[in-house]
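Why does this matter for the project? Reviewers at the last site visit asked to see concrete outputs rather than summary tables. In response, this paragraph embeds two records directly. Each consists of the residue sequence and, immediately after it, the corresponding structure tokens. Nothing has been edited or filtered.
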Amino acid sequence: MIIKFDESNHTVLPAFKGGEKEFQANMFFDGTNRIFKGVLVPGASIGVHKHEGNCEVIFILSGNGTLLEQAPDSEPAYVKVKEGDCLYCPEGHTHSLMNTAQEEDLVFYAVVANQ
């Protein structure tokens, strides 16, 4: 199956999961798993959230930003991310993604897979 994100519905989600500004996405959903191409404009973020019953893989296509990641029973860590990085949030972990750039969008593919 080929997913053509440029031909799929474009969704704008203000303050997604409590984040700043808006999260823009072209999404594919098969009733169980989600695959999407996302965009965070400068200063935008996906709010802090915990993955329960699923995990998420994010591949940064362009731009840079900051990932907040937190494993159960640990302190949160802030990690700089950039084009080419692959981020993994296992089931039971918490994370957030922020575009900390001044002028460039943060563009990424993400897969949220149920376990």
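We now turn to the second protein, recorded in exactly the same manner.
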Amino acid sequence: MAPSLAIKKKRSEERRVLAGTLVGTTIEWYDFFIFAQLTATLLTPLFLKPLSESNPGLGQILAFAMIGISFLFRPLGAIVAGHLGDKYGRKRILVATLIMMGIATALIGALPTYAQIGIAAPILLVLLRIVQGFSAGGEWGGAALMAVEHAPENKRGYFGAYPQIGVPIGMILATGLLYILRTSMTPEQFMAWGWRIPFLLSVVLIVVGYLIRKAVEESPIFKQLALRKSSEHTPLKQLFQTNTKEVIQAALIFVSNNAAGYLVIAFFISYTTKVLDMPLAPVLLATTIGAVGWLIFTLVGGWLSDIIGRRATFVIGYGIVFVWMIPMFMLIDTGSIFLYGLSVFILTTGLGLSYGPQSAMYAEMFPAHIRYSGISIGYAMGAILGGAFASTIAQVLLERTGQSISIAIYIMVMTIISVAAVLWVGETKGTNLHVEDVDPELQAAHDELHREKNA
């Protein structure tokens, strides 16, 4: 094959990889955010009706806790998907988790409410949330590895940022769609049937995501694993024998970003509309604009980490989150929609810079044969300790103290923990990601087949 043609083919495959990792995480998080944002405004009266009438504050706390329930099953999804992904490949697990998430989301859109089937409604809702949490636990690790393991060494941070921006893009889609629905129908229509539309649309997104992911080649690092002289048949067991410290580090690195992120995703919408009495539609629009900032600075964070390193980029991002917390709540408490939007946008600069380098840093922390398990479990544990009950904790703090400053202090403490974890890990940029102990005979046979295929 001519060199120029080989370069074009390589770049085409890189574009497919970036598109495949991006579209999958976008769909996964669109599904997740639709639920999280409706929890802030609609879930209590539809599925927890007795509590919403007798004790609205407690009802909202339990509604936010329902977001957290799914997080408890992320480690299980991470364990299962990570184990299978390390043994059988990243690609097929990515497709499976995408389908699982989409089916669960569509079924939520068809679920009867408490008024229709009573206590069975919240029980079924919890079961579907468990499926969502399980699939989300396995999704991120596979997408991150597909991006980073296909990347040139000097672009791992930038490539790794693509599955990360699926989070803000999913949030933009979710929040933007809710804004359109809220402003195009009456509150009664939205309460009766309009809320189901975003969930049911997930079916269309699944088909698109499946077709794109199916066209992506398996990770080159995983292909190398088949060429090792000795194969590890129990990657999960070895992970905890040799890399428990790295799993803990990965979890702690993520807690602040995830906790602060879920304030934007869920708590702020409830706080601004129910406590500050701000109109919902402008709040949704301002949150969507904030998500655009999250998208931009996540890409910047990945790119910057390729230049100045993962550690420095994380510290800058978390520094912004820490410094901005108290001023942000002071501005939000004014009740001005403009200041709310500005506050969220500035927060997302810190969130982006501390999220963009994550895929690359995590991949560089674990050896290839246990990498899927390691980064998936670390990410899932960080999500439990960080975002799972962040909105619930924020609501409880608000109920107990009556002061939003208590929430700011809570996030600042989480940020100190995450910065300490980043410094504990140190710099990972430039780490060799490839597989050691490759059988030279198998490698030669593989190379020959590859040359014949591309001749």
